[in-house]
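>> received
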Amino acid sequence: MKIAVCGSNNASDEEIAKKAFEIGKEIANNNSLLLTGAGNGFPYEAAKGAFSNNGRVFGVSPAKNEEEHINTYNFPNDSFTKIEYTNLGIPGRNLPLVKEADAIIIINGQIGSLNEFTIAFNDAKIIGILENSGGITDIIDKIAEICDKKGEKENIVYSSEPKELIALIINKL
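>> returned
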């Protein structure tokens, strides 16, 4: 199983960063592959959590190569099992990231995370929302209600607890 973690590239809220780390550990505990956009913030915290728990972490970078990934985007290259350099820029890399995943998790987030959400929602993928993490997670239920055409909103699960969120996602898959 492949679970993409999407969210804010700024992990300034320490409590949410700890939860993101725990989400990564839980993904690894369930022998799932963690996917991220290979950037910073809450998805990177999740990557570190999975990697610290001997999990597999695959990054989908917007850069054309490692040098651009590090020097232009200022993105990390540790805590990843592998990084694919797409040369698609941001938000171009969002499409292959979400398409590759069986499910996604949104932690906080802004326009990029909203883009990832809409791709997953349109594809009727399982979407986990870390409740009370701020950003777009505060309004996702309203967006889902407005955009629901064929019952896609039933694929969304919500929890403020990392272990429960992963369990809810796995039970939906």
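>> The first helix runs from residue 14 to 29.
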